[in-house]
Amino acid sequence: MPDHSLISHFRQTRQQSEAACEPLLVEDFGLQAEAFTSPPKWHLAHTSWFFETFLLKPFLDDYQPLNEQYQLLFNSYYNGIGEQFPRPHRGLLSRPTIDEVRTYRQYVDAAMTELLDSGDHPQRDAIATRCRLGIEHEQQHQELCYTDIKYSLHANPLFPRYSGDSQQPEKTASPGHSPIALQWHEYAGGLATAGINTATDSAQAFTFDNESPSHSVYLQPYALANRLVTNAEFQEFVDAGGYQRPAFWLADGWAVVQEQHWQQPLYWHDLEGEQLQFTLRGLQPRDPNQPACHLSGYEADAYANWAGARLPTEFEWESAARSQPYVATEFDPNRLHPTPARDDEPLAQLYSDCWQWTGSAYRPYPGFRTSEGAIGEYNGKFMANQWVLRGGSCVSSTRHVRPTYRNFFYPQDRWQFSGLRLAKDV
């Protein structure tokens, strides 16, 4: 019997990618402001390439690719598959057109429906596992598409908006509420469990390989801030000359500050005496109570040093998150910017606003093993020189916000919706 819930989930995810691109003009689909971003058109094509490469070609009899050249054009980093078109030049791919990419998506969708409808396929379990990974992979690219298009639109001095009325402020969680004071929640530490045990943890329908194996960690007593650092608080760091004082910065971070002439967070603008920030709705007044967002790991670490605190480790963050009831955060396409914290949560803003930098290096858990073949390149080969972020953001998929999810970026990266929760020793 076909797995109708899996088929429905596949179709819904594919439709969500198209919906995220509805506000774009045809000229927007090829935008790539920097090498670390990708054009929206490429995201739409690459996610189709993933299903074609890892499901249709190995499992669907007599499958014929729509265009053999797409294997090169839309391969991201899978060396086991073959060569890739250079990432910095993806914006030069004016052909295939966006209409041709949509035709490619429809072609892949039809073939995937045929494959998933064959409930008696001898490899049905492997197909279901790969399909779930492909769905989660596309949801990751949906988030990347929001962050990439925001960065590329910001490169335009006209500050064009992605969607919405530029005269209307971003949707907030609780308009008119008063800011909540920063408070510390203390944790006793001791022996804690980190990661997912895939053999016994049936509560989580899907996890990535880098979230396991489950293992024990020992934590010293520590405290976490009840909410994220706000724009107003980070402004104090800026006003205190934080970007001019090397004592607060790691050596590599200070080198980046000097090289790239950072003076304040990405997307902050001070124009004619008004404090503004660029959002997916264009330039907006900077709400002092919203979380400081689009911070690099270096900026988050420097602020924590200046504030007499530190970044949490990823295991401190996970243990604290596990200690309070998990409340799923629903993605809202009308809320594409972080909002101020509410005072009805023990640890506010765990999953709903900004990814939170930790002081932990992105490394494999004890006993981690990559999968065989090219699919094993998904996470494992990136476990070097990056930092772990925990939580979720305002543009994260609903299914990607959980205590064990490990996001990772280089500490100089700040185009993601990344913020800061303070920690300290007790």
Explain this structure to me?
- The strands form 4 sheets. Strands 10-9-8-11 form a 4-stranded mixed beta sheet. A 3-stranded antiparallel beta sheet has the order 1-4-12, covered by helices on one side. A 3-stranded antiparallel beta sheet has the order 5-6-7, with no helix packed on it.
- It has 426 residues and is an alpha+beta fold.
- The chain has 9 helices and 12 strands.
- The termini are far apart.
- It has 2 domains: 4-154; 184-425, paralog of FGE (formylglycine-generating enzyme), CATH 3.90.1580.10.
- The relative contact order is 0.14.
Q: What's the layout of helices and strands?
A:
Elements: H1 4-21, H2 40-59, H3 70-73, H4 98-117, H5 124-154, E1 184-187, E2 190-194, E3 215-219, E4 222-225, H6 231-239, H7 251-260, E5 268-271, E6 274-279, E7 282-285, H8 297-306, H9 314-322, E8 355-361, E9 387-391, E10 407-409, E11 418-419, E12 423-425
Helix pairs in contact: 1-4, 1-5, 2-4, 2-5
Strand content: 5-15%
Shape: globular
Helix content: 25-40%
The strands making up the biggest β-sheet line up spatially as 10-9-8-11
Q: Give the CATH architecture of the largest domain.
A: Alpha-Beta Complex
Radius of gyration: 22 Å
Q: From N to C, what is the helix and strand string?
A: HHHHHEEEEHHEEEHHEEEEE
- CA(first)-CA(last) distance: 56 Å
Average pLDDT number? 93
Could you state the CATH homologous superfamily of the largest domain? paralog of FGE (formylglycine-generating enzyme)
Number of domains: 2
What would the CATH topology of the largest domain be? paralog of FGE (formylglycine-generating enzyme)
Number of DSSP strands? 12
Structural class designation? alpha+beta
In DSSP terms (H or I, runs of 4 or more residues), the helix count works out at 9
How many strands, what sense, and barrel or not for the largest sheet? 4 strands, mixed
Instruction: Give the low-pLDDT segments.
Output: 172-176
The CATH first-level class of the largest domain comes to: Alpha Beta
